[in-house]
């Protein structure tokens, strides 16, 4: 191979430090990377080795996760706090090393501890290997659109408070596009993202939902978009005038500047399944300005679906299909080794001693569970260390493959009385043989919280075989499986009152977190992990930890 086509090493240094920003009429000190919000963009090509030196100058414990990167045999670089590593304490450093293998498109990175990801995040852009090209016409320019959520208060403090009191998540003060709230917010007229376009040209927008608590609708006035990739996997081109995107997901769209010279808003605002749910109902917007547009031109605003327009969201989520003709495609495995049925829902737990909880019932606070188990984060040793060094007592391998009782999961009227409201606690995982295939039905449970839950799996992509509403029924719903070209994702929105079926191959030894990507639901326990055993050869065995792996 010529040097030009050889895989490269791309290296970055992340200084995680205080940053003072003016937002919403006052000045705030946040934790950010290299003095910008969002932080630096990681540019890599398929096949590259990525090395990121992280220096924690912040006052907080820190880890960073490379969301959607497979981390083949590099679980030590995955990042979730206490799952694959102990955090970097203030003043310490750690170098994350991993290879990009068979992935192209848009991913992102974010802090994976406390609520720091509200300000510690950025894009990862993975281009094809030299000699390979996009399976769509080459865009004139590529533009990251990183959607975020902003709090005026210190995000770590408000999170700790919310957890202790057992209230729901704290409502944010703004949504943002590339870190900027846009002119609908106070004092933000000049803090609006602006994209200049040339009429007739096509742009690749790499949209990332880095918002902390909400699914979003994203629109551009008067323009259609064509989806070409999601979660760094290619899709069949899908034309739409609205994008629905869950926290954790990415959507790459082609946008052709085919409208009269002028200016047009792009905007994002929440999609929530039930109005009345606690959420920030404000709108962030940026502006697309055509070359030659008079400075006096008044931008056109897109018309949004209602906040609770589930049919529109579901149409977008369920109509996407994979491009099977592309080099990265692997056919869906037809033989399943492990079937699981996992309920996803909110619950309550007793208030800890000497605390006043403000949860839903007297003396309780919110919790969350998967199959009636509330995940408890270990202390002292990470789960991956426990796996590698064979230390017992850090986790148990008894995560239930089915809920303890079968009931009418989507019947709101009865569910306030089911025993699922008081789950057991534990660090329970599912242990898998190397290369086994898992199929998981994720059933959203309508209990005290009426929310969609974007479930994210570390270490793997999964096929989304089917999605639907009501109680999942194998007798009728299995016939809806798309085994030919299902969408491939790392995060699936499990709809309120509905379900999704996913399948993946456990081809990567290590410990892989699975959790809701609504940040407030993680400390509440809406999480579990897969422990994948080593394969038969050195090439399928997790290597030892790097020497600089942080200790607890
Ligand atoms: Cu993007 Cu475990 O997270
Ligand atoms: Cu959730």
How would you describe the overall organization of this protein?
With 552 residues, the chain is mainly β. It has three domains: 1-132, Immunoglobulin-like, CATH 2.60.40; 133-326, Cupredoxins -  blue copper proteins (Immunoglobulin-like, Sandwich), CATH 2.60.40; 338-540, Immunoglobulin-like, CATH 2.60.40. Helices cover 7% and strands 39% of the residues. The strands form seven sheets. Strands 10-9-12-17-14-15 form a six-stranded mixed beta sheet, with no helix packed on it. Strand 14 and strand 15 form a beta hairpin. The longest helix is centred in the first third of the chain and has 11 residues, at 155-165. It is globular, with a radius of gyration of 22 Å. The protein binds CU-O-CU linkage and copper (II) ion. Copper (II) ion (CU) binds at residues 451, 453, 516, 518, 521, 526.
**How helical, in percent, are the residues?**
under 10%
Number of helices: 5
Strand line-up in the sheet with most strands: 10-9-12-17-14-15
Sheet with the most strands, sense and barrel status: 6 strands, mixed
Which CATH class of the largest domain?
Mainly Beta
CATH-defined architecture of the largest domain = Sandwich
Q: Which ranges are low-confidence, i.e. pLDDT below 50, for 5 or more consecutive residues?
A: none
Proportion of strand residues: 35-45%
The CATH H-level superfamily of the largest domain is Cupredoxins -  blue copper proteins
Gyration radius over CA: 22 Å
């Amino acid at each position: 191979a010529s040097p030009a086509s050889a895989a490269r090493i791309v290296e970055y240094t992340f200084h995680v430090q205080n940053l003072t920003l003016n937002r919403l009429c006052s000045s705030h000190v946040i934790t950010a990377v290299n003095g910008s919000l969002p932080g630096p963009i990681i540019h890599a090509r398929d096949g590259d080795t990525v090395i990121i030196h992280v220096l924690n100058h912040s006052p907080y414990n820190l880890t960073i996760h490379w969301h959607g990167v497979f981390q083949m045999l590099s679980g030590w670089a995955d990042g979730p706090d206490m799952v694959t590593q102990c955090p970097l304490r203030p003043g310490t450093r750690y170098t994350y090393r991993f290879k990009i293998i068979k992935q192209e498109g848009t991913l992102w990175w974010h802090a994976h501890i406390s609520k720091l990801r509200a300000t510690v995040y950025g894009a990862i852009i993975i281009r094809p290997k030299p000699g390979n090209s996009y399976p769509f016409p080459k865009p004139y320019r590529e533009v990251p659109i990183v959607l975020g959520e902003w709090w005026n208060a210190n995000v770590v403090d408000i999170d700790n408070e919310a957890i202790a009191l057992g209230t729901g998540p704290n409502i944010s003060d703004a949504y943002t596009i590339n870190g900027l709230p846009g002119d609908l917010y106070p004092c933000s007229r000049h803090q609006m993202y602006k994209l200049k376009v040339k009429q007739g040209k096509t742009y690749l927008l790499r949209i990332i939902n880095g918002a902390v608590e909400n699914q979003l609708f994203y629109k551009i006035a008067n323009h259609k978009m064509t989806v070409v990739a999601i979660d760094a996997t290619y899709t069949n081109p899908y034309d739409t005038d609205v994008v629905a995107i869950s926290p954790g997901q990415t959507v790459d769209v082609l946008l052709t500047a085919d409208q009269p010279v002028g200016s047009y808003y792009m905007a994002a605002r929440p999609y929530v399944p039930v109005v009345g749910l606690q959420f920030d109902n404000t709108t962030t917007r940026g502006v697309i300005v055509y070359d030659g547009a008079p400075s006096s031109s008044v931008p056109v605003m897109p018309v949004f679906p209602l906040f609770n327009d589930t049919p529109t969201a579901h149409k977008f989520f369920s109509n996407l299909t994979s491009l099977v003709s592309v080099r990265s495609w692997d056919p869906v495995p037809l033989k399943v080794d492990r079937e699981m049925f996992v309920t996803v829902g909110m619950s309550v737990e007793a208030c800890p001693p000497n605390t006043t909880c403000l949860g839903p019932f007297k003396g309780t606070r919110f919790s969350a569970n998967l199959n009636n188990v509330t995940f408890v984060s270990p202390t002292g040793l990470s789960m991956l260390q426990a796996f590698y060094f064979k230390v017992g007592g850090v986790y148990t391998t008894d995560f239930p493959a089915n809920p303890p009782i079968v009931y009418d999961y989507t019947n709101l009227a009865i569910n306030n009385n089911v025993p699922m409201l008081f789950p057991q606690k534990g660090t329970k995982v599912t242990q898998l043989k190397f290369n086994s295939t898992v199929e998981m039905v994720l059933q959203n449970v309508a209990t005290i919280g009426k929310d969609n839950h974007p479930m994210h799996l570390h270490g793997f992509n999964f096929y989304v075989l089917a999605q639907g509403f009501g109680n999942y029924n194998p007798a009728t719903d299995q016939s809806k499986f798309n085994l030919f070209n299902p969408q491939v994702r790392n995060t699936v929105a499990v709809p309120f009152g509905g379900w999704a079926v996913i399948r993946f191959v456990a081809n990567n030894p290590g410990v892989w977190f699975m959790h809701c990507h609504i940040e407030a639901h993680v400390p509440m326990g809406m999480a579990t992990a897969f422990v994948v055993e080593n394969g038969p050869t050195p090439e399928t065995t997790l290597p030892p930890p790097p020497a600089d792996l942080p200790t607890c």
